[in-house]
Amino acid sequence: MVAQITPGELSGVFHALEYAKDLVIEWLVKYKFKKWDVTETRKIPVTEEFKRTRAEEIARQLTNHSKWRLHGRSIKRYDLENLLTIKRVEDDPKLSDLVYRIQIVCRLLFDTTTTFKIFATEDTKIFRQAAPANIPVKIPIAAQQPDVVEIDQNCPQCGTVHKIYGKFVHNPKIDKELTSKGLKPFPKDNKIICSCGFEFDLTGIRNQIETNLGRKIIV
Prior knowledge:
Radius of gyration: 27 Å
Number of helices: 7
Shape: elongated
Number of strands: 8
Order of helices and strands: HHHHHEEEEEHEEEH
Mean pLDDT: 89
Largest sheet: 4 strands, mixed
């Protein structure tokens, strides 16, 4: 099996592992050990060199394949308690309340929208949305440059079909004709909220249509 792996791939794996060690060492010294001034038992002053030596020991333990066995194995809190001093969230009522509130909000977003990942800092929030692919798009026959397209979008949660249209020209007749058939105009924020409460994002569909036809949907 190893013979089928190129030297370049083996080198890439090796350097990725070393990079992981470097990050663990850097972050432990910079964050976890930032206010570590004396040892817990012997009360020995902790120097920067001492911090780095301890961080290197922990990095070696965390990348010890013979100990953890599988790359996909999650490391639990009790595993880390043998390596580090761990502050339990539930021991701080105020902190635990904040953490659990955030967990609930994230779980609600993941369960009721197409959001699958959230990057959040104090000032910025980025949401990654799952974009449906290969959605049927109805284009008028023999229209190389159509003025409108129709889209049937199924709700991922309840299966309700949402009929939507996107137009490429300012033409009130299009709105009147298609709304009379029960279609809704493409939403300005690219999002639909189904009657079941599920919210899904149409940004991927919009990008697909605009790329294929080379025209911008007017909303």
